[in-house]
Amino acid sequence: MKYPSVRNYINGQFVEASGARKLQVISPLDGSLLSEVPMSDAADLQKAVKSAKTAFPAWSRMPIKERVQVFYRYKSLLEKHQDELARLVSEENGKTMGEAIAEIEKCVELTEFACSLPQLVTGEVLEVSKGVECRTEHVPLGVVASIVPFNFPSMVPNWTIPNAIALGNCMIIKPSEKVPLSVGRLAQLLQEAGLPAGVFNVVHGDSEIVEAICDHPGIEAVSFVVSTRIAKMVYQRATHHYKRCLALGGAKNHLLVLPDAIPAMTAQNVAASMSGCAGQRCMAASAMVAVGQVDHIIEKICDEAKKIVPGKNLGAVINRDSKERIERYISEAEQQGAKVLVDGRHAVVNGKEHGTYVGPTVIDFVKPDMAIAKEEVFGPVISIIRSNTVDEALAIENGNPYGNAASVFTQNGGMARYIIERANAGMIGVNVGVPVPREPFSFGGWNESKFGVGDITGKSSIEFWTKLKKSTIKWNPESGVNWMS
Ligand code: NAD
C-alpha cells in the first residue's frame, strides 16, 4: 500500500473511524493499491457535527474580511504544492498529469473568487421613512455538508469549501470513496493556512454516511454532486428533512456542428471535449449532431482522435466496471447499425496492464433512440447523430432529459444566437467544446442535471450558503410613529 490508511479529519485532528468496514483505493493508472478508506458510521458523523457546531459561533462572528485571510494563505499553499496535489489527483483518479495540474489551477481560481467575497456580500440599506432604516445582510447558515464525486477529487470539493467557509459556515465533507486521498491533503493545507479546528471536517464513507447527513438535524444545507438517479434520491431525502439542498446530477451534452464551422478548430474542440479526463466530465461532449454535410469535419475529428493515446495524453477511466460499461455501450451501438470510425475498445498500456483504459472512440450513424445516444456513457466516446436541419438538431438536443451543457460550432453569429435561445441547457458554448463559465460566473445545469435553486459556484453560491437577515431600525424618538414603523 503506497499511502497509510485514510482517516477522518475531525476538530483539527486525523482520527480513526469507528466503522470497521474498509474499501481499497486502487489507482486506475496501473491497478496498484494506494490505500484503504474507512466506511464511517453515524457515530463518526455525530462527532463531526459536534465539532463543527462548537466552532461555528466564533467562526461566524469573525468579520468576513478576516475570514478570507485564511483563503489567501490557502491559495498560496495550493500554488506551492501544485505538483504534489496534481500527482495525488492523477494517481487516485487516473487522469493525466497535465489534466491534474489544470484541476489544481482551477482550485486556485475558485479560491481567488472566495477571497473576493467581502466585495460581493455587502447588504443594502435605505431610509424607508423619516429616521427609520431597513437593512439586509447575508448571514451564514451554520453546519453545512458537501458530498462530492470521483471525477474531480480536488476541484469539486473546492467548488464548495472556500465559498461556504468564507461566508461563515462550518463544513463536513464526504469525499468519494473511490478518490478519498486528495481531500485529506486539502484538510492539512487548510489547517496550515490557519483555519480554526472544527470549521472543516472530513468524514469518509459511502451511501450510509450520505443518508446520515441528509437525516441529521444539526446540518442546515447539503450540496451534492453525483449521477442523476442518486441526486434525485438525495435531494428528496435532504429536503424531506427541511434542509436546503443543491444536487447536481449527470449530463448528456450535445455539440451541434454546422457545415460552415471552421474544420480544424471544430475537430480539435470536439476531440478534446469528448476525451479530456477520459470523458469523465459532466461537461464532456457525448453526442455530436452533424447538421447537413459535415463529412469533411468528421474526417478531421477522426484524425484528431487518433492522436489521443491511452497512457500518454489520455488517462484511465475510474475502474474496471466503468471500462466494461463504456465498451458495452459501444458494442451495442455497433450491433444496432452504428459505424465505429475510431475504436477505443480493449485498450492496453504497456507496463500498465492492470490500468483501466479506454481509447478515444468515434461512432457515426448513431440513432437518437439507441442507449449510447440517450444515456450518460462517461467515457472518451462521441456518438455522431445525423440531422438535416438546425431545428431537427435542436429537437434531438432538447429531447434528452439532461441539461448541463450544449455547444454549437458555426461562423454564423445569427445562427449561434438562434441556437443559444432555443437550446434547453444551463451552459451553452459557441465554438467552445467545454463551456464551463469561469469565476465570477456560476456553474450549473438545468433539468435532470440539477435539483434545487441557484448554482453551486460564483455569485449564485452566495444565496445558497447564506440566509438574508432584514432589520428595521429607528434610533431617534423624534422620528415619530407612522403607519409603517
Ligand atoms: P461516485 O461513485 O464517486 O459517487 C458520488 C458521491 O455519491 C460519492 O460521495 C458517493 O459516496 C455517493 N453515493 C454513491 N451512491 C450513493 C447512493 N446510492 N446513495 C447516496 N450516496 C451515494 O461518483 P459518480 O456518482 O459515479 O460520479 C459521477 C457522476 O457525477 C456523473 O453522473 C457526473 O455527470 C456527475 N457529475 C455532475 C456534475 C455536474 O456539475 N452536474 C459534476 C461532476 C460530476
Detailed description of the structure:
It contains 16 helices and 20 strands. It has helices at residues 42-61, 64-80, 82-93, 97-115, 117-120, 155-166, 181-192, 207-215, 228-240, 263-275, 295-306, 320-335, 371-374, 390-398, 413-422, 460-465, and strands at 8-10, 13-15, 22-26, 33-38, 124-129, 132-140, 143-147, 170-174, 200-202, 221-225, 244-248, 253-257, 285-291, 339-342, 361-364, 381-387, 405-409, 427-430, 450-451, 466-474. The strands form five sheets. A seven-stranded mixed beta sheet has the order 14-15-16-13-12-17-18, with helices on both faces. Strands 9-8-7-10-11-19 form a six-stranded mixed beta sheet, with helices on both faces. α2 (64-80) runs antiparallel to α4. It is globular and about 80 Å long. The mean pLDDT is 97. The structure holds nicotinamide-adenine-dinucleotide (NAD). Nicotinamide-adenine-dinucleotide is lined by residues 147-151, 156, 174, 176-178, 206-207, 210, 225-227, 230, 234, 248-251, 282, 376, 378, 404, 445, 449.
Brief overview:
A hairpin with a 2-residue loop joins β5 and β6 (132-140). Helices cover 39% and strands 21% of the residues.
What is the makeup of the main sheet?
A: 7 strands, mixed
Determine the N-to-C terminus distance.
68 Å
Q: Assess the beta-strand content as a share of residues.
A: 15-25%
> Helix/strand/pairing class, anyone?
alpha/beta
- Percent of residues in helical segments? 25-40%
The helix count comes to: 16
* Total E-strand runs: 20
In the predicted model, the low-confidence regions spanning at least 5 consecutive residues are: none
Strand order of the largest sheet: 14-15-16-13-12-17-18
Q: Quaternary arrangement of the chains shown?
A: single chain
The whole-number mean of residue pLDDT values reads: 97
If you compute it from the alpha carbons, what radius of gyration comes out, rounded to the nearest whole angstrom? 24 Å
Can you tell me the overall shape?
Answer: globular
Bound molecules: nicotinamide-adenine-dinucleotide
